[in-house]
Amino acid sequence: MSIIEILRLLRKHMVLLIVTPLLMAMLVLYFTRKPTYVYTSETTLYTGIASGSSVEMDKSLSFFATNTAFDNLINVIKSRETQHEVAIRLLAQHLMLDKYDDKFISRQSYNALRSITPGHIEQLIVRDKNSIKDKKPGKSAQSVPGSGSVAPGNNQNSAGVSSKDSTESDTIKAIENFSFSSLDSTSDDGMKPSSIDKEAYEQTVLNLKAFMAMSDTNFVYELLYFNHPHYSLNALSKVKVQRIGTSDLVKLNYESNDPGICQQTLVILTEVCIRNYKGIKENRSDAVVKYFEYQVKQAAARLQVSENRLLKFNEDHNIINYYEQSKAVAIVKEDLDVNYHNMRIKLAGTQAALKRIEDKLGNQQQIQLNNAAIIEKRNQLGDLNSKIATIETIPGSDSINGHSLTALKIRAEKLKEEMREIVNKLYNYGHTTEGLPINALLNDWLKNVIEFEDTKAGLVVLGDRITDFQKQYAVYAPAGANIKRIEREINVSEQEFLELLHGLNLAKLKLQDAELSSSIKAVDQPFFPLSPNPTKRKLLVIVAAVFGFIILLGTILAMEYFDQTLKNPRRASKFLKLNLIGIFPKVLLKTGTLNFPFVANRLLEIIVQNIIMVPKASIDPKEPQTIILFSTLSLEGKSVLMGNIALKLKSLGKKILVLTYPEESILRAGITPRNPHDENQSPSQRNPKKNKNHFSILSRLLGYSDNRADYESPFLRSPETVLDEKEILTYDINAEFFSANNFQKLIPSGISDSISPDFVLIEIPDLLSSPFPTGLIESSSMSIMVCRANHQWTEADQGALDGFMQCTSSQPHYLINGVDLQAVESVLGDLPKKRSWLRRFFKRLVRFQFFTGYQP
Question: Whole-model pTM above 0.90?
Fold first, then answer.
């Protein structure tokens, strides 16, 4: 389609294109006469996620970790559990109000809630904290810590840690626990009803939760999971959450038809989402803290058990310092061994010396030396020396049998003197058997006897001491292994305790870090919306108008695009693929300022001119030119056009003969003419003059042009009224017609000899209703298919045309009847009618014809 055709199409339906959008806009305006006003409130939360606020100084967050943290926060806000908590708390707040308060709920919403609330729900509402019975501490939502964890400092010794010096004593008591949540000074108490007690409110929330969990058919459950505009999860899911750029801020936006509910929903949502997010963040670290606290207790217990075992072992074995004691025992034993061997050597030497002296003495001296007095004194001296050696050997032994070491030494010296006196009495004997002086030998003998007794007594004592050390060694040898094992156990327990204590400190640091990072604060508290949002009524009206215009325009263009009618020469050539012989316009009752007779006559002249100019192959010049006018359907205008063409040929000085058939002949032959526009009409009703169209009022209102035909026009007269009786003849549709091979067969025998026309115009019945005479068609000079512009070309039409073309000696031509006057311009150019300068300007503009006028 060209631009001009599109503009003509829009002009044709201009009123409809204007009325339809206006009608749709008015309908939308009517249906939205009572709009539902929507209020919007928003709040801004500071998260501290992107900036990385942390007690760990070297901690850093990556871009993906930050995005993940924000996604977690947004999903927590949008989670069903959060929405469930907000809906319950909002419902509890409204049910606890004694009357409506526009700051929290409007009169309409409050009355609507009260009207649907069953009576048994009132039993769940707690209005005074004094009426709370059997309330367990720590069960309300606000009494539970936000993290649900052990605060830093728990499970630690709260006793004083003393630090003393010579001048003063200071005591520091760790009795307070630090928490970052205690530093949060923000509060939304002023945004909640002051008439509602907090404890009663929390208990009411718990009651509603417990009641809802009882079944899925109760009032609270249906309120949350159906489509209530304020308390349903579907309504709360409309909260919009978005991060503001790349900052730490998150904006929450909510819309509702009640300004108080809009604000309170965001207030409660902020409180709930902060608590839930804090719980999720801190519960992970809290579990680790509890684990390490338990393990630290177990490790401390194991360490204490090992230390108690070591203490008990030392007490049982009288051990102060095993390593020093064992070293000292080893040194003393080594010295005892050396002294013991030296004394044995000395004892052996002394005994040998005594034996040599006694051998030098005679038997008499031996008898005297061995007398009872000396032997007794000798034995006494040996006992005393043994006691003295024992006392001197064992440290700490000051007395034995009540005698002090000094007394024993004095007594021993006294016995030695007594033995010397007894021995001096033996001096009287003079000399030995070998002539040696007995005095000297007796002195040596006494000296060796004393030394022998001393050495013998010391050797006995050292032997006993060595025996004691052997017993001590028997105790110390396994004690070392046991102490080593116990110390190893203590060392392992101590290392385990220290590592677990370090892990506990890190876990508590992580807990504090999680508490700090999850410390969300409301930067902008939810505000109370004073005015509703601008309604979309204007936008809906505009959209309805534009939508109606676009739909209608699209429908018109689609109908035009998919239109299968012949309509104009260009479209007809596309479907028919034949040569155009001419067009003829629709004869309208009202043509306006158009000079229609001139246009019609000029188009008939062009048709006649084209007929004359068509080359006639293998036709005798003396023979008349036979023109067959046919159509695929009836009522295509063959008869009228044939009469107009005949008149125009006659005006050119040509002799013409028109052969047509009466309609009664078709009916007698049993042929029913086919016209899809008149399928339900009787044959008498198919005459257009008897069935004139009426211009409807609706078409007039929609601005469509009057398309009624002017049946009184000279261009619509039948051939019988415009031609002489000799110039028009009729024939019957019978066997002779179908077997005719030239036009003379259709003329009565008495008349054919007297007629010598230049052109013979023969009208035959429509191809889809009756057979056609193949011989007559084959002998014709040319054939013209007449078709109306509103004819919808189908495969049946094409099949009938293809069958007809097989019988012709030349390709048929086509003539379009009843075309619109705009289509005539494709043949005649601009039609001769009066136009305003504006229409002329726009027409040249769309054709890009700016200098088509006369240029001198």
Answer: no
